[in-house]
Amino acid sequence: MTFDEYKNDIVMGKQRIIQEFFDGESERGKSFIYKLLSLIREREDRISFARLAYFLTRLEDASSNKEGFNKFKRNIMNWFNDDKEISQTELALTLYVYSIREEG
């Protein structure tokens, strides 16, 4: 990955989308992100897309920001089947988790 790809596709693209979603979503925390990361990392499995869709759809009802959640869900689902896109998404989610980590 080039620096421009990192900057434009991850930091200014996917990470910004992720940040906007979580800023407007008080119900979702790190456990939600870790589950997403787990589903992304297990995507070799033929049923992994169905697992992701089920996970996101199940959480949609409890969302306080339905429009924001639907936008986030569409993005994740669109990126999921593209190797490059989902690798960038995994990195963006990981960077986001590190950015919100509390010092202990």
Distance between the termini: 33 Å
Overall pLDDT metric: 88
User: Major beta sheet, specifics?
Assistant: none
Low-pLDDT segments, ≥5 res = none
Gyration radius (Cα, Å) is 13 Å
Given the structure, what is the number of helices?
A: 5
Structural class: mainly alpha
Can you give the helix content as a percent range? over 70%
Give the SSE string: HHHHH
Rough outline: globular
Name the beta content range: under 5%
Structure summary, number of beta strands:
0
Describe this structure in words.
- There is one protein chain.
- The protein has 104 residues and is mostly helical.
- The protein is globular, with a radius of gyration of 13 Å.
- The longest helix is centred in the first third of the chain and has 21 residues.
- 76% of the residues lie in helices and 0% in strands.
- The termini are far apart.
Topology (elements, then pairings):
Blueprint: H1 3-23, H2 30-41, H3 48-60, H4 66-80, H5 83-100
Quick recap of the structure?
This protein is an all-alpha fold and 104 residues long.
What would the keywords be for this entry?
single chain; 104 residues; mainly alpha
